[in-house]
Amino acid sequence: MLSQAQSVWSSAEPWDGQTWSWDWDFFISSARALRIYLYDHGTIPLWNLFVCGGQPELPNPQSFALTWPSLFIYLFPPAVAIMMLWLVMSVVGAWSTAGLLRLSGVSRAISWIFSLALVFSGYFGAHFNQGHATFAFFHLIPLVAFAAVRDLERKSTGKQGNGLLAWPVVFASFLLFSAPSVQALVYGFPLLLVLWIAFRAPMRTLVSMLIGMMLASYKFMPVLFQSLARKRPDIFLEAYPPSILQKTLFTFVSQPELMWESYQHPWRFYGWWEYAAFISPVLMLCGICGIFMLPQRRDKLLVSGVILMLAGAILALGNGFWVERFGMVPFIRSVRVFPRFQFLLLTGATWVGALFAQQCWNWLAMRKALPVVLRQSSLMGLVLAALVALPS
């Protein structure tokens, strides 16, 4: 976890006196345009003349205009604002993930260790270094999940109250659906759906989420209509070999020059940062070993995490992978960069790994740890051998 955390912040270049490259240039330039509109002309634009010869703001999924994150843009210099927004979202993601694990009986220490491993994982570090500022809003997904599960737990214990709405769910849903990040919705929707089905959320929670979505519809509905009306020209069938999952474990964001060479394959369409979730091997192996707890423990979060791990692994292979084998497209063809779905694999491994670590701690407390550790170590060896043997 410490190596992953170091890779995030030590790779970031100094803020001042530099020429920002990659997608940092796009987001910082767009932020500067918003500040010019407000401070020089006293307005917030619906049509931005500074970007690409003119573009509408609300239908643009990556525009901060008229969204709550724009407060950071107006209060601070662009680079500092985006950096601060990333830090705030990271705190939100760590806190909500830890809270979700706590609701499933994981100790405070283990909850925070695994939640920090998620937040400071190389998945977010690589996208941060590339300048994918909107990936910070992925951390709102566990916030919505935590608010919904907490409301369900309060209902089961009789502490829910008599209100018609769960206001934390309304607030969290509004933050997510009004954020300038269509990626968070596309790659996070399966996560929320799986969690929803596993926990069988009551009508009050569902209505609360819908109210939050309605309040945010001024942003995501124009984005939706724009996406339906004008399909991106760079969408194609993507097919990746299973070895891409092997690189999820054994390629590290702290060595970008090595990663760039290791991803020079015929099937490489995007940059190296798109292909691997850079999950810590320890975290991933804890998650894999936790799968074997299913016959003994049917915890709802455990079941959800296992499903997410499988879904993330399957989706990361791309829609073309399945077309080649079964002659059909099981997933929508308008989605690009399918390896980004490893966010589901990362989140599921965090949940399952934390539950496994807690179970090991309980076994240790009961002095039953040795046979369990030996059995799980054997399973780890088999898993490692299978990963190394994956075809390239």
Structure description:
With 392 residues, the chain is mostly helical. Helix content is 64%, strand content 1%. It has 18 helices and 2 strands. It has helices spanning 2-10, 22-41, 70-75, 78-103, 108-119, 122-130, 140-156, 167-177, 182-199, 203-215, 217-229, 243-250, 256-262, 281-291, 300-316, 319-326, 342-365, 369-388; strands spanning 47-48, 55-56. The protein has a two-stranded antiparallel sheet with strand order 1-2. β1 and β2 (55-56) form a beta hairpin. α14 crosses α17 and α17 packs antiparallel against α18. The longest helix is centred in the first third of the chain and has 26 residues, at 78-103.
Give a brief rundown of this model.
With 392 residues, this protein is mainly alpha-helical.
Distinctive features:
disordered N terminus; globular; 18 helices; 2 strands; 392 residues; two-stranded antiparallel sheet; mainly alpha; 64% helix
What is the beta-strand fraction? Answer: under 5%
Sheet with most strands: 2 strands, antiparallel
Q: What is the number of beta strands?
A: 2
Tell me which oligomeric state these chains represent. Answer: single chain
Taking the alpha carbons of the first and last residues, their distance comes to 28 Å
Low-confidence stretches: 1-17, 258-265
Overall form:
globular
H and E string: HHEEHHHHHHHHHHHHHHHH
Q: Provide the spatial order of strands within the biggest beta sheet.
A: 1-2
Mean pLDDT: 78
Relative helix content: 55-70%
* CA-based gyration radius: 21 Å
Number of DSSP helical runs? 18
Structural class: mainly alpha
